[in-house]
Amino acid sequence: MASSKKKCIIIGAGYAGLAAARTLVGEGGDRLEVVVLEAGHRVGGRAHTESLGQCGYAEFGATWLHGVVNHPVYEAALRLKYMDGTEKERAGMQWGTSQYVLEGAAAALEGADALAAAKAAPANGGGGGGSSAVPAAAGSIGTFVRQRFQQLDLAARGNVACDAWAWRERLQRAIDGCHTTDDMNAASMAEYHELPGPNIPLPCGYQAVAEHFAEGLDIRFGQRVERVRYDAHGVHVTVAGGAELAADAVIVTVSLGVLKAEHEHMFSPPLPPCKASAIAALAMGCVDKLFIEFGAAVGPAQASCCAVMWITGADAVAMEAATDEEVCRGVQGVLDAFPAISLAGRPFRVRRTRWGADPLFRGSYSYCPAGARAADMDALAAPVVSGPSPNPGPGGAAGGQAAPPRVLFAGEATHRSYFGTVHGAYFSGQREARRLLAAFGVHSGAHVLSSIGSA
């Protein structure tokens, strides 16, 4: 006898895929069969924590909790006792010791020069890096940041002001993921919403929470999807090696970068023109980190320490293509150019991210460039429905019901208000899972696995 269960396949075990799976399992109960196919060999996607030995753990991907109120990862970390709730009060202390150095200077900036550099930090109006205060009329984020910077009236500081502007513009690239702030659409950023609360790191790392969210789910690693065929009867998903899985629907949570590179040959039939246009219009940024592990100093006893360099845009793309030796020479060049860092003569090794070159991600996070619209994110999020429902309608007539969605899309790039964030990815996974539950008419009322931070 054929099973009456509905079956859903989720492609990707990042935060969007994990949220979708937990919601389907938790709210659909035993009336759903849910399988997660992950091309890699870990969960978390672009949120990835690794050990740096004596330096502890480091976030190779997502770094911050952007706000804490109603943040699913923060709530989970509290329940798991990875955090204790006092982090909100201590957040401001993390930035109190920031120092600014100029190329060639033997010491950090002091006095009026240091104050001028510090004043450049919140020039986007968000204070903590957000851009929700950006007016759509600004045109581009670059225009807005320049206007705010000019209002600071730092001209009297001469070269310090010029260097502060260059630093501030590069910082904005890292925040928003764009190659240049002039290519970042201000209209889309005007719709970005910030969760209340500070930007704070996760002491346990994003990886620990992702692994908790993955508990109890049917996640199959090393399953890279090559083909998704869909019609009015369901979907067939083919993975590398030729194995095929059938289901009633599929939730696709791969990154925008992967969709850009592979959607034309991944989906059969091809995605609707409006969906393909949205994929083409939106952009995937490249933001990388270089983790520099310094050994003990030669001479006076000094503990090992670590530093991190952020690199964005075309420079990040070039770094990813460079050899390890070339990267180390580049890092040494930076250290030599800034003697105030006081790390000359210390041996070091470099570990780097390569999000753009990684075929499972093809970039760091999405943004809406000039020429694109926030509505393109909505188009990317829209489900694909194929044909009339094969189920009998009232009185036994075929096609009497609205066709259920067959191919659904989640991920940070599909969230108009929280794009570029882990919580945006998580919320989008919940959104698509509940869209599918409503279409299937499956509601158990249970919220076991989908409850934030539950066991």
From TrEMBL:
SUPFAM superfamilies, per the entry: FAD-linked reductases, C-terminal domain (SSF54373), FAD/NAD(P)-binding domain (SSF51905)
Residues annotated as domain Amine oxidase: 16-76, 203-437
InterPro entries: Amino_oxidase, FAD/NAD-bd_sf, Flavin_monoamine_oxidase
Oxidoreductase keyword on record: yes
Main localization (coarse): cytoplasm
GO MF annotation terms: polyamine oxidase activity
Cofactor(s) listed in the protein's UniProt record: FAD
Protein name according to UniProt: Amine oxidase domain-containing protein
